[in-house]
Amino acid sequence: MKLLLSIYAAAAISAAGTPVQNVQSYLENAISGKELSDASAGALAVTASGDTIFCADSKKMLVPASNMKLVTTALGLHSLGGDYRYETSIGYSGTLTHGILKGDLYIIGGGDPTTGSKDTIAPAIESVFRQWRQILKDAGIKKIEGHIIGDGRCFPGMPEQESWQYNDIGTYYGTGTSGLSFYENTQSFKVSAGDCAGAPVKITPSYPETPWMNFRYNCTTGKKGSGNTLYLYTSDLAPEGEFRGSFAIDRKPKTEDASNKFPAYTCAYHFTEYLRGCGVECTEGPADLGHIFGIPENRICPQSDLSIIGSTLSPQLARIAFETNHQSNNFFAETIFRTLGKEYCGSGCYDSSYVAVENLLEELNVGNEGLRIRDGSGLSRTNYISAEFLCRLLRTMMESPAFEDFFESLPYPGGNGTLQWLMQSVPDRTRERIRMKSGSMGGVRSFSGYIIPRSGSKEDTIIFSIIVNNFTCTSAEVNTRLNRIISLLAECN
Predict the structure, then answer these.
(1) Is residue 394 part of a domain?
(2) Average predicted confidence (pLDDT) for the chain
(3) pLDDT of residue 276
């Protein structure tokens, strides 16, 4: 039985609880209390049948953080379908005679975010390389007298959204997208504190191997309790990177993931090394289509002129969306966002993706009122969204053929993913009726989603969104109040 159906059935046989009549007053007190006196907030809760449970500045447009992923995954699943898969093709330019390719081999990326990913949904990169090697064997290619080119052309333009903060871009959660990705476009480093505060942090590159990079480590060991502010400052203009920030002396050694600005080249490099290990000669080595490791422009072959000899497919979009929302994976979300542009506007650049989102929202009769979108993940602080818009989208999605996949992509408090530690004091039977996405960045907290009623009636499902911006109290204090509001909502039905 599908998850969604089983949840509704379980809710229907649960013991009836006592309705909570003061959820509105609690919300008002929480928002107007001293802890949130400097904050801006918007909130709305409605039933699927259209009844309003509470409303507070629901049309106010606020920074949503990762609640933006609800828009991205909803539109992705609705428009592309949960069975959608990304295709990575292998092709070549030039001629193939007697097993010798006199030309370049192309790894043609279709946007697959899982290539070489450490996520459990992704096949191991050795398995992927083995499939690509088999494609070459089936085509009779034994020697390549040319380059192996990582081709990421399907996502043109800047890899990151221009409004992202530079210290976010240097981290694993702020890495840019590519038509041909590798290891979620990150690189791992082994990190440990120095011998005393002020001493250099000990950092060693780990995986994937990037021998073309020149790393500098301009970061210091911080005092006890100062946390981890490390980030890698890089640019696609040069193979240079500098670690900045600090790492507290009381922190345990860890593996730190940072941005890799040359994912297509990294993929080509590692596949070249794999082929050489299999006895396939590659005379000119790896390359990409950029200006650092790229081949001359007059040698670049249009994709339409390449001879395609095979392809591999990604996991289904439903599985990617599940990981996107459960783990709040920015990289997966940005990839889905740019895929909308590629599929509906013919280009995977950000400008095309904005147009695609607007058009799809109009087709769904959700409209764009209450939305200003700048990326697919919510990392930009120039995204603005209202609680009313999110509730309108969530309510509309309940009628979408993709609703089950979308619903299953949302975690519940206390389960796996980013909500694992929320609402620990709330009974399991209540928490499991809640499916929602959280959003978090400095001064921002948001929670939006569904609450399945005890009656099991779809029409009584509660749809809610609460967004708080610019608070100056601790995140824990905000979370306590928002969690209480959501648990009271769950007790209402």
Answers:
(1) yes
(2) 92
(3) 97
- Together in a domain, 280 and 133: yes
* pLDDT tier at 174, thresholds 50, 70, 90: very high
Q: Could you list the residue range(s) of the whole structural domain that residue 220 is in?
A: 166-259
Hey, which residues does 80 pair with through a beta bridge?
Answer: none
Residue 439 and residue 372 in one domain: yes
pLDDT tens per residue across span 264-296: 999 999 999 999 999 999 999 999 999 899 999
Question: Do residues 324 and 454 share a domain?
Answer: yes
Which of 227, 259, 291 is the last residue before a domain boundary? 259
DSSP E strands in 298-454: the ranges are 307-313, 371-372, 384-385, 434-441, 444-451
Closest CA to 443 of 478, 418, 417: 478
- What distance in Å separates the CA atoms of residue 372 and residue 357, rounded to the nearest whole number? 11
177 and 292 together in one domain:
no
Q: One-letter amino acid identity for 435?
A: R
Sheet containing 254-259: give its strands across: 202-205, 186-192, 254-259
Q: Clarify whether residues 479 and 343 are in a common domain.
A: yes
**Structure tokens that stand for 248 in this block:** 């507290």
- Dump the DSSP string for 469-481: ES--S-HHHHHHH
Residue 363 three-state SS: helix
| Same-domain check for residues 255 and 176 | yes
Average pLDDT over residues 458-464: 93
pLDDT in tens, 288-301: 999 899 999 999 99
pTM of the model: 0.93
**Residue 294, beta-bridge partner list:** 288
Number of domains in the chain: 3
Shared-domain flag, residues 366 and 310: no
Q: Are residues 255 and 337 in the same domain?
A: no
> Which residues, at least 6 apart from 113, have a Cβ–Cβ distance to it below 8 Å?
86, 177, 181, 184, 314, 320, 331, 332, 335
Strand partners, 46: 52, 463
**DSSP 8-state secondary structure symbol assigned to residue 228:** B
**182 burial via Cβ count (<10 Å: 0-12, 13-18, 19+):** buried
**pLDDT digit string, tens, across residues 105-132:** 999 999 999 999 999 999 999 999 999 9
